[in-house]
Amino acid sequence: MKEDDKEKTEEDKNPQIEVNSDEEVLFDSDEEPEYLSKVMDKAVEDYEKADIEDINIRLMKAGVASLVDDEDEQMDKLYNLLNDEEKKTFTRLAEQMHYDEVGISQSCFKKRENE
Predict the structure, then answer these.
(1) Nearest by Cα to 40 from 106, 108, 95
(2) Does residue 19 fall inside a structural domain?
(3) pTM for this structure?
């Protein structure tokens, strides 16, 4: 975001949006150009720091864990809520996490030490 834009009010930035004095302008975060990369970075950071129990607690607090009893069905429903770009990014991220976890991305050859 430009430095000038930070100083502008929401009305100055978006004059086409009319808001009453008792209302607040809410923007959908996935309209931001950097949205997907921010979400990916945060997901990787959380995945590396949190254990599965912490993640499940956060999902439950967000109301996600109570959607359905069957975990596979729940994951399918959540995945289907993503748009095409988010699905591609999620798939790449999941594959990379899987590769890192099982060590596929690591070489089976040891580096030789220089004598």
Answers:
(1) 95
(2) no
(3) 0.51
